[in-house]
Design a protein that fits this description.
InterPro entries: GP_PDE_dom (IPR030395), PLC-like_Pdiesterase_TIM-brl (IPR017946). Residues 13-265 form the GP-PDE domain. This is Glycerophosphodiester phosphodiesterase. This protein is an alpha/beta fold. Helices cover 34% and strands 16% of the residues. It has 10 helices and 9 strands. It has helices at residues 30-39, 79-84, 103-111, 128-141, 154-163, 190-202, 212-216, 220-226, 239-247, 258-267, and strands at residues 14-18, 43-50, 56-58, 117-122, 147-151, 168-173, 206-209, 230-231, 252-255. Strands 1, 2, 3, 4, 5, 6, 7, 8 and 9 form a 9-stranded mixed sheet that branches.
Length: 270
Amino acid sequence: MRPEREALPVIATRVIAHRGDSSEAPENTVPSFDAALQAGADAIEVDLQLTADGVVVVIHDDLLDRTTDSVGAVGELDARAVLAADAGSWFAPAFAGTRVPTLDALIEWAVGAPGMGWLLEFKGPWSELSVAPVLAQLRASGVAGRAVVQSFDLGTVRALRAAGPDFRVEALVFELPAADGVDGVDGVDARIERLVEVLREVGAEGCNPYGVLLAEHPQLADVLHSAGFTVTPWTLDEPEHWVRAVEAGVDAIITNRPGVLRAWLEAKPA
């Protein structure tokens, strides 16, 4: 078990480390998890994909090219090829030899850091049949109670809800859905009203919007909260963005700079 970090002050807005502490270590790797723990993050956001032979690996891009020394599509390669790639040298020589983690490796780390929450993004389309074994593994490991599952793909969100009634399921949102007209009830943008309908249709409990949407639609967080959804924007890395998010009353912030955000929140007057 990893050593427990010192008790941290309780803050109203939770800090979620985007792909681990990706400002200090290569994203979506065990060193980035270690760095997020040291940074005082409340949770770590990671990306899950399936290799061609059905192994769950932790990597964001569809291709290996950007974050490893190999090339090729993750979904077209077997796990042996993906796990042979060096996922650290691109970031800094000190991380040479770092590997793409499997779900097994993530769970092993999570079991050793019982205070850390998880925000697990299922990349692209997953069926109920394909998500079920992942959720079962999280349950069996004891990690499920501190894991939130999410996706941009609405079909995947539905699959997560169907296979994981005991899990918290959230939906990632890049843009508001289309809707007839501009204003709906009480002057609320009809697209926000449609978003609320979509979230209910797919069984999401939270909405995790692109941070720009908070600036473009000042009502967004209030309407979502009033409808019973949590709000966790991504990926906010600058104080001016944090100010807007906190003033909007968001529940958590996803950031590449968890240590800096944590210090900023702790220094902010109550």
